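Researcher: Here's the sequence for the chain we discussed earlier.
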Amino acid sequence: MFMGIRFRRSMKLGKGLRVNLSKRGAGISLGGKGMRFGVGPKGAYRSMSIPGTGIYAIDYLNKSNRKKSSTSKTARSTDNNKDPLPMPQDLKSFNYPSLCIILMLILLPFLPIASVFLLAIAVYGKKQLANSSKGKARDKFKTGKKALTEGDYEKAREVFTELLKIQEIPQLYPILGELFLKNNEYTKACNYFEKYLDHNPKHIGVKFQYALSLKLANNFDQAINIFQDILNNDLSKEDESRVKVISHLGDCFMKKDNPELALEVLKSGPVRARKLDEDKMYFKYLLGLAYKENGQNDRAITHLQRVYAHDTNFYNVSQLLEELGKI
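Model: Thanks. This is the structure I predict for it:
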């Protein structure tokens, strides 16, 4: 049986001061027999031991804070605490300037010259990180995220577009797709949704947004293929999201001047739905329109009147009912 090789090395720099190297990273500790303070890959810690016995304990100094923050939020949903747009893994890097600052503060009372040296390394390192391509990309990501959070969509589009010229970040493709969709730039929205689906072809939400952008860009045939694929392969028969997909699929056929196929598609939706939300109202409106275009005026009136009773300004429902002699 093969066993993993554990690498660990400790080097003495001065009285009570050691640099510790391991597979997980580097750290530094200060103290003597019985108690030491240090900073390692897992953060700041305090270790206590009984000399000659092999008994020791390590207490990470931020452990109690982590416990406190986690227990105080047990009643909240984890989704509420999750960052909707975390820093991409490709932009993360080891922040050694901050480590140098921590080490400087620890060493300052004992080795002031070494502390000055560490401060110089921290300042130089921070400048180097900021001027690197990864540093610039990280700053642009933060700027774009801030603009997005504040609702400045134009700035977010501009910053994220520039960021992708520096580094490819698939995580940003659907966000840019949404931003261009909001700005009625449907072709650009399609391009970004398509790029994301090249990396993650099974993402149903992005597939739907891609198909919707294609429809709005008048690329009905391709939109129809994707809407049908979602209905046939991605959503179960009981999934409430189907009504939205069925509506847009039917609308594609209507816009292709094929009301017969549109009606066949729409009849597979919740025709007898009693409670109408926004999605079902859109479905009922399209169903009534399809019946009207197929010359089945009585059924068209039935569905259009349901919509009219909920919202007289819903699309052109009042105009359709007027044409049918019901207003």
